[in-house]
Structures are given as structure tokens and as C-alpha cells.
Amino acid sequence: MTEPVAGFSKFSKEEKIQWLSNLYLNNDSEAVKVLKQYWNEDEKLQQLHDEFTENTISNFYLPFGLAPNFLINGNLLAIPMAIEESSVIAAASKAAKFWGSRGGFKATVLNTKKVGQVHFIYNGDFRKFESFFKELKPRLLDAVKPITKNMEKRGGGVLEIELKDKTAALENYYQLHCNFDTRDSMGANFINSCLEKFAEMLQNEAQNYADFTAEEKDIEILMSILSNYVPECLVRAEVSCPLDELSDSPELDGQEFADKFLRAIRIAEIEKYRAVTHNKGIMNGVDAVVLATGNDFRAVEAGIHAYASKDGQYTSLTHASVENEIFKFWIEIPLALGTVGGLTSLHPLVKLALQILQKPSAEDLMKIVAVAGLAQNFGAVKSLITTGIQQGHMKMHLMNILNQQQATPQEKETIIDYFRKNTVSHNSVIDQLEKLRQQ
Ligand code: MEV
Fold first, then answer.
1. Same domain, residue pair 323 and 291
2. 281 touches ligand 1 (CB under 6 Å)
3. Rounded-to-integer distance, Cα 257 and Cα 277, Å
4. Which residues are catalytic?
5. 280 pocket-lining for ligand 1 (C-beta < 6 Å)
6. Do 242 and 103 have their domain in common?
7. Beta strand pairing status for 64-72 and 75-82?
8. Is residue 145 located within the same domain as residue 190?
9. Of 92, 179, 224, 316, which is most buried with the most CB atoms under 10 A?
């Protein structure tokens, strides 16, 4: 058993690695080499990355790829995606090309309200509290003026503060439920700062409120924190085309493709096991763009999955219909994103991703991310109901095996050609490569 380490965060980077190597890596110099191999030669750039978080000892790379040909509301964009999974960028690019020649994607932001809450305990008469809150509310808004001044200049700010009685669910539990407009910033710091000020005011002013008894004056603030559930920060993206333009496969006509596609979507709407995987495919697209643009993918994931079960059962985030011979496919998701603040002006690749996307506003980015999710889902479901997804996956898998085996470009060409007509498995690729090498 090793002893817990004290003051680890104060160690230098070298000391941290030394400590790790001694205790957990058996002083394996190769392992330490791996860590250092990912350091950036540019010391300033490395220091920037070190300081994004705590106890940094190396960098963790993800591929940064590009899915071109996305026609969104008439603008042709190339979408940067940060993702390690094979086939995702290929599927997005394919779907973009498919819909690009069928009118492209239409996306609309439905609303942009963000949410934060002060959770507190009040032991007393609720009607008295309501009167207290009515008097307090304008002063709460005044008290955050130093924080909201700049946001208001940009057209945002605090939209509403509502008092909520939650005592039916938990004894003496109340909330200030607040709505914010944070314009182009994700707004987490702004929202949390406002909430903490509201909480402080609430607690202090209650002490001075003449109508409260001593017990009522004693408000216990539990938490002041934004919510990652933003069902009123919604974006919708859709594609549509006449049925007779829908199929690009010789085996299915448009009507047959639509029948299969609609049934697949229906299954994801009604069946939880399928819904989760279906939505996971959507998140392949969503997360990759969210990550490339320096946004918080955990927040986005949590909020979107909660939204997928807003009516009591977890269901598909995409829907499809055929009306008057027109096939329509759409997605509606909540997205709290920022294109200013946070990592957006700090991380060089994030800055570049936003430059590639033509410096979008947060609303533009919401549309782009929703489109990436929809495109990804279209690609996945299209593969599933036609060829199956293994065909595409195995192609990438084949490439991964060949790279692992350090195949030369010549060897790759021969083996890829061989597997056009043969089934890929790890063993079959190794066998084939060995045969080739023996020749
Ligand atoms: C794999 O990452 C995503 C899929 O499973 C999504 C789906 O099944 O719709 C292909």
C-alpha cells in the first residue's frame, strides 16, 4: 500500500511525472517517454494547455477532421469535428453531399433562454415569503447591475426571477428559478455570479424583514447554480425532398426507402433500447462539433438526454414524416453554446474551428450543431436500413489494422483491393498481409 500524496498540485510537472513513474509505472522510462512525446515543442503553447486544467502531465490528442459540403440555410460550410470514432466524419460528409443536392438543411433557433436556480430552505408562512419576494425582486435586479451591465449592452441579461414552492416534493424547499439571455456566450460564469448575488441578497434581506419571525428570517441557502437543462434554448433543423428524389440506391425506390426509414424512426420513438443508440448516433455529430468549437459537451449531453425524456419516456430526438409525397426529417434539441468567452479565444484549434465556420454567433452555432446531429442520424439510419453499418466500419477497421501492422502504401492498396470482395476480420487481414509479405 502506498501513502496518500500531500501537496501534489504544488509539484512541478517533472516532479509529478517522477512521482507517477515511481509509484505506478515501475520506473518505466518508455512510459514516461510516451507522456513527453505528446508535449508541444512550443513551450508557450504547452503552457497554455497545461493551464486549462489542473495537474496536467501531457496532452491527449483527438483527431480534428472536416466534413465539407454542408448547405445550411443557403450557406455552404465545412464543419470541423473532433472525434476519435471512425466512420462518423465520413457519414456526416456523405449525408451533407446527399442533402446538398436536395435543397440542403434548414435550421431555425426557436428560443434562447438559459436557466439558473437558487435552492433554499425557508421554514415559515409561504404567503409572507411571497410578499417579501415581491418587494425584494426589483432590488435583486439592481444588485446584479455591475455583473449584467455589459451583457445588457449586448442585448442579454436577466429575463425573469420566479419564486417556486417545491415543498410538495421536499419539506421547506423553495427556489428562485431564473431565466437568462447570455447572447453569444455560454454564460455559465455570468449566470452563476448573478445567482450567488441573488442568494446573498435573499439571505441578508430576510434578516431585516420586519414581518418574519426569528425562524423565518433564518433562510438556509443550499445551492446557487445554473441548470444544464435548457428546454427553452431550442434549435430545430430539417431536411425535405419529394419522395421520387429520396433514394440513391438501385435496390429501393423513394417510397420504399421512406417506408423503411419512417419505421426505423418510429422504433426509436417508441422503444427505449433503440432510442438510446439512435440518439447516441446523433450525439456523434453533436459532440464532435461541440468539442471542436470549445464548448462543454458534458453539459450538452446531459441537457439533450433529459430533453429526450421530457414527456416521461426516453424517446428519439429526430422524427420523420411523408405528406403529399414529400419526405421530411427533423431534429429538435436544446443547446446552450458559446462562441465568445471560455476556451473560444484561448485554444488555438478552437479559434481555428470558429474561423472555419465563418465566426458564427451562438445561434448560428446552435444551427450548425443541430444539422451535424441530424446529418449523422440520417447517415446511420440510412446505412442500417440498407447495407448495414459494418460495411463502412470494417473499411475503417481494415485501415486501422493495416496501420497497426505498419503496412506500406503499396501493401495497403493490394489488401484494400482484396477486401473489396472479402469479409474483413482482424485475423483475415493479418493472414492476407503475411501472405503478401512472404511473396
Ligand atoms: C455508432 O457510433 C452509432 C450508431 O450505432 C447509431 C445508430 O445505431 O443509429 C450507428
1. yes
2. yes
3. 21
4. 85, 280, 296, 393
5. yes
6. yes
7. antiparallel
8. yes
9. 92
- Count of other CB atoms within 10 angstroms of residue 392: 18
In a domain, 233, yes or no: no
- Judgement on whether residues 157 and 294 belong to the same structural domain of the protein: no
- Closest residue by CA, ligand 1 atom 9: 278
Tracing cell 454567433 back to the chain, one arrives at: 361
* Residue 261 sits in the same domain as residue 363: yes
Cβ–Cβ contacts within 10 Å for residue 234, how many? 19
Phi first, then psi: what are they for 341, rounded to 5°?
A: 75, 180
**What string of pLDDT tens digits covers the 439 residues of the chain?**
678 999 999 999 999 999 999 999 999 999 999 999 999 999 999 999 999 999 999 999 999 999 999 999 999 999 999 999 989 999 999 999 999 999 999 999 999 999 999 999 999 999 999 999 999 999 999 999 999 999 999 999 999 999 999 999 999 999 999 999 999 999 999 999 999 999 999 999 999 999 999 999 999 999 999 999 999 999 999 999 999 999 998 889 999 999 999 999 999 999 999 999 999 999 999 999 999 999 999 999 999 999 999 999 999 999 999 999 999 999 999 999 999 998 998 999 999 999 999 999 999 999 999 999 999 999 999 999 998 877 777 777 888 899 999 999 999 999 999 988 888 889 999 999 999 999 8
Both 160 and 86 in one domain: the answer is no
Q: Whose CA is nearest to atom 3 of ligand 1?
A: 281
Q: Do 373 and 276 share a domain, yes or no? A: yes
Ligand 1 atom at shortest distance from the alpha carbon of 284 = 2
Domain count, the chain: 4
Nearest atom within ligand 1 for CA of residue 381 = 9
CA nearest ligand 1 atom 6, residue? 281
Judgement on whether residues 197 and 216 belong to the same structural domain of the protein: yes
Asked whether 342 lines ligand 1 (CB < 6 A), one says: no
345 lines ligand 1 (CB under 6 A): no
